[in-house]
Amino acid sequence: GMHGQVYTNMAVSNCDLLIAIGARFSDRVIGKPDEFASGAKIIHIDIDQTEIDKNTYDCLPLIGDMKHILSNLLADVKPATRPDWIEEINAYREPEPEKSTFTPKNILEKANSYFPENTIVATDVGQHQMWTGQYWKFKKSIEFCTSGGLGTMGYGLGAAIGAQVGNPGKKVVLITGDGSFRMNNNELITVKRYGLPIKIIQLNNHSLGMVRQWQRMFSRARYSETETFDDVNMKMFIEAYGITYYRCHSIGELENALEETKDLEEAVFFECIINKDDSVYPIVPPGRPINELLLNG
Questions:
Q1: Element (H, E) at 203
Q2: What is the CATH code for 6-90?
Q3: Which pLDDT does position 85 carry in this prediction?
Q4: What gap in Å lies between CA 156 and CA 134, rounded to an integer?
């Protein structure tokens, strides 16, 4: 899709058979419709018939319960290793970046390592939302609460509150940005009043990062209403609600904060200061096929 990894987009683009299970094939996923998996036969499995042939055509639709359909398909499939195909896909994988730099990828992977596999993660809307989808290791889809393409800034804190109330025995993490967090931060009083142990990680670039990135890449860096915010003393703001606060400028500082609070059964706010030019890559330009990814710009 638009922010899919290079090797996954190239695998979809170059495959000869694509099996889609419960996928709605939105415009953000398929890019240019007539060039999506153009050499593949597509088997589209979904329980909802209205999802068939919305943006892709000539698919073989299988309507029904996924477990039943897959069980029947597997009965007729012979195991195969296909080493050449796996080698081709792996050739598109990018080398891992330096782990010590304070980048969104490293921040999220470090935070991820401190929470159990069944942790519920909520996000707001923007770059942090895309980075979470890319780098947090989810085991089940129900552990990821995000508004998807609806773009509802401010969604995250309410979603995290609801997830924690409904799952008192699980860890809940909110990953947010400084723009989205301003939309609904008054609900911190609810977090404090009900003693909800939500861990909040804010990636603060002092801008509306996703809009700013698009302005830089596709509007010749004509920035409008995205680049600067009045400075807010987040320490004073968060502590006014009686919530524990940490400000982090490095992986070491973040690791220390996570270590100190890993057994703390109360809300904690981690403000991570990142560069305003940190961007979401890969990115597929609007209207282009998903194999035309940009890795910079």
A1: strand 199-204
A2: 3.40.50.1220
A3: 94
A4: 17
| Backbone φ/ψ region at 225: left (φ over 0), alpha (ψ -120 to 50), beta | left
Helix and strand numbers, DSSP H then E, in the chain: 12, 9
Joined together, the tokens standing for residue 248 give 């982090």
Query: Structure pTM?
Result: 0.89
The reply to whether omega before 197 is within 30° of 0 (cis) is no
47 CB-side CA count, 13 A:
5
E strand or H helix at 191: helix 188-193
d(CA 156, CA 150): 13
Alpha-carbon distances, residue 35 vs 7, 236, 259 (angstroms): 17, 52, 48
Sequence spans of domains, the chain: 6-90, 104-273
List, for residues 201-224, the tens digit of each pLDDT value: 999 999 999 999 999 999 999 999
Which positions ≥6 away from 220 have C-beta within 8 Å? none
CATH topology of domain 104-273: Rossmann fold (3.40.50)
Sequence letter at residue 16: D
